[in-house]
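Support case: user asked for a sample of complex input and structure output to validate their parser. Sending the pair below.
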Amino acid sequence: MPYCVHCGVELNPAVKTCPLCGTAVNDPAACPTEDRPSFFPTRRAEVAPVTRNAAALLISSMLVSVSVCCALLNLALKPQYDWYLFVVGAAVMLWIWFVLPLLVNRWVPVWIRLTIDVGAVAVYVALIALAMDGWAWFRGLAVPILILAAAVVCALGWLLRRGHSVLTTVTLSLTAMGVFCAGVEACGDLYFYGEWSPGWSLVVLAVCVGLCIPLLVIRRVPSLREEVRRRFHF
Amino acid sequence: MQRGSKPVPLRRVSAHDTIGIKWLYLIHAICSAAEAAAEKYAISGALRRPGMILKKRGNAAVVKKKQWYKLDNAGVLYSAIQREEYSAVYRFSAVMAKPVIPAALQNAVDAVMPRFPGFAMRIRRGLFWYYFEPNTAPGPFLKPDVADPCQPIRFHEDAGWLVRFYYYQNRISFEAFHALADGVGALTFFRTLLAEYLRQTGVSVPAGEGVLDLNESPRQEEMEDAYARYVGPVARRLPLVKHAYSNRGQAEPFYTFHVTMGFLPVDQLREKARSYQVSVTEYLAAALLWVLAEKQRGENYHRMRPVTLAVPVNLRSYFPSDTLRNFLVTVQPGFDPALGKYSFGEVATQVHHYMRLHTMPQEMRSQITLNVRYQSNPALQLIPRVLKNPLVAHNYRTRGVRPFSATFTNPGAFTVPEAMRPHIGHMEVVLGQATVPRPHVASISYGNIMEITVAGTQKDADLEREFFRFLVREGLPVRVESNRTDTGRRV
């Protein structure tokens, strides 16, 4: 019987490495053994999950049902307004967010997925603009903010695409939030007053930067980072 | 075990819910309509099934009603927290002297299941609680064994069966959902199953010595909710360490479950435990705590947290009961390495005295009372199940996960009648995956072989490696078997 030279435990003659430490088992006296069945079965059995198409069908039917019911109700309740478009827009947005990923089986780059998600929001806002005859604010205010949101979300998704530490994720998210707020105020100012006069967004940006600086320092200094890990037990 | 003829939701809310009484009438009307429809089938007898009882109503009408059973205290917990990433399933295996004959084993399963109605259940989702009802579907069917055991139970799959049977080479494995029974109940079932299997293969095994007689009817005492029987006047909570060393690793992808088993001679293990003046369970618990403390020390935290174990205690030794359902409480032996350096002997002594101090019947009774009162709390009863489940899950995280570094259970020695002994090589036990990626440890002995299983979904094999190395350093010969292909060891 072979033993692990590091762990001192007796091993199955069929194993090539110790299952505890990975040390190779070298037994010069071992004679080639016949094919013995392994101690544990090797057949993998996985419980089949709910199919993605079935889940997509269920959610789609629910969204369609809600949309149709609201459209019918609109015929009787305040028919002078096309308020059902709000519900239909929300349903379309939810469908793009949740059902589309279920139907697309292959891997899609994160920036494409996020752009499509922001596009869904744009469709919803466009429907609201259509119902309220608000194409002016849609073009002048909503579209720039949506483009900014798409850019920020895609940039954040691209930077975090490979998975980072909690510190990096929080730092980048705070930065993105600060930049987005500054952009929103700029869009609003340009639409309403024709010029950008930074105000509240600078406060938000300053807070985000203030929060990011200590996180960056911790992230960059290994001894500090190790100390934080030790103190927070993770 | 309580048994009723009315649908569960009605029984639950009728005493308290005055606001929703109209809804209750509506539900009752629907149930009555369903009963009337069922009546047709009952009278014709075409679809009458064993799980149904017949009840007279009026002059000659016969109404078909299903039995249902209330979950016990532990069953409520395990049902509420069951999900894809957590498995309240445990496995007992017997490695026989000869290769398993699947047909004989399936016959044995078919013969034994009616004697143990507590295992022939399916779980149903009520409005306020889960409940059991007899499973009359065909089965359960024997299957070839799989690489990753103790997979989570899905209540609506496998025809609703909450038990599974597997075979592989010489090994017979039985898996059960913990809401059905604890280790003692499951081992009684498994012992009877093995006896029947041996009978099917031509071995004469008499009933007795833990093997139940298949010709006798199930006794009511075997299905009682023993927790409810031993409720006392005072409800107290066992003082717990709130935040223990978590011992988490990196999780493997779903369905990858690492099982590492160590085999060692019982006589040498007992001798070693005796040298520390502790029992075998206490010795193994102390060894595990010691290894966990050293592992935490190696991970170099700013301040060490206490290391503790969740150790289930069989209450039948203290409160007489023949129940085959759950009847256990959990105690928390451990020590705080932040206080200073402990020797292993001191840890073993601490575990020994802790177990003596906190397994007093009075204290355990107060724990039982607290748990049962929680279940019968009127305010909690009125909360719908879908809202109650997150509350139970949160309670489990704070009271059942965070205070513990690992779980260790030792059902003890598996004994069988003399006629069965030559046909069983050794026994194995495996606990299903924890809610977090960390290992569960379980042990069982048969004859002179003690089997210890370390099982979990974490990538690294640190705990099992150091635990078995510790036993080797103590002078105990350990043989290791594992389904791991990678130790996940950081170089």
